[in-house]
Amino acid sequence: MCGGRGTRLDTKVEKPLFRIGGVPMVGRVVGALEDSAVERIIAATSPNAPETQSCLDVPCIETPGEGYVADLNAALNDDRLSQPVLTVAADLPLLDGEIVDRVLDEHNGGSLTVLVPASLKRALGVSDDTTFDNGGREVAPTGVNVVSDGPDDAWLTRDRRVAVNVNTLADARVAEQWL
């Protein structure tokens, strides 16, 4: 998923192309997926990130750029995809093949949402704009999910590789520290 506007990042560069450790975030995510057991990589882009699409060396699905959920739904309706589908946000520069494979191992057939404790995001010093209660614990979505028919499940991890989403320049500084 690499078609968002990235307005909170406050930079002139498209968010997926924002460099962490000298490498565009979307390049880091694609590299992590290439180093995992994922069989095929397709990027979901939008009119909000035209330069991102031209920089990618993977097939792209053009989404309307109307927000994450609308773009995800548009991507999932593309004939090139069949469920289950691993979805990954382009703003996870610490992602690597090992954690992607752990997510795949946790998947039990239905949909899977990967969560981290909100307290972990705060301890790391990254933004936690979206949190909710899950079994009496405040959690935050990571931007990594498996979408499929069947029961919904969640995996709670304390792994910083999925906890550090870069939404602000302060988040970017934290990500740089952990590279």
UniProtKB/TrEMBL annotation:
The keyword Glycoprotein belongs to this UniProt entry's keyword annotation: no
MobA-like NTP transferase domain span: 2-118
Keyword Nucleotidyltransferase set for record: yes
EC number: 2.7.7.60
Top-level EC class: transferase
Matching InterPro entries: MobA-like_NTP_Trfase (IPR025877), Nucleotide-diphossugar_trans (IPR029044)
Source taxon at top rank: Archaea
Pfam families according to UniProt: NTP_transf_3
A single GO molecular function term of this UniProt record: 2-C-methyl-D-erythritol 4-phosphate cytidylyltransferase activity
Alphabetical UniProt keywords: Nucleotidyltransferase, Transferase
Annotated SUPFAM superfamilies: Nucleotide-diphospho-sugar transferases
Protein name from the UniProt record: 4-diphosphocytidyl-2C-methyl-D-erythritol synthase
Annotated source species: Haloarcula marismortui (strain ATCC 43049 / DSM 3752 / JCM 8966 / VKM B-1809)
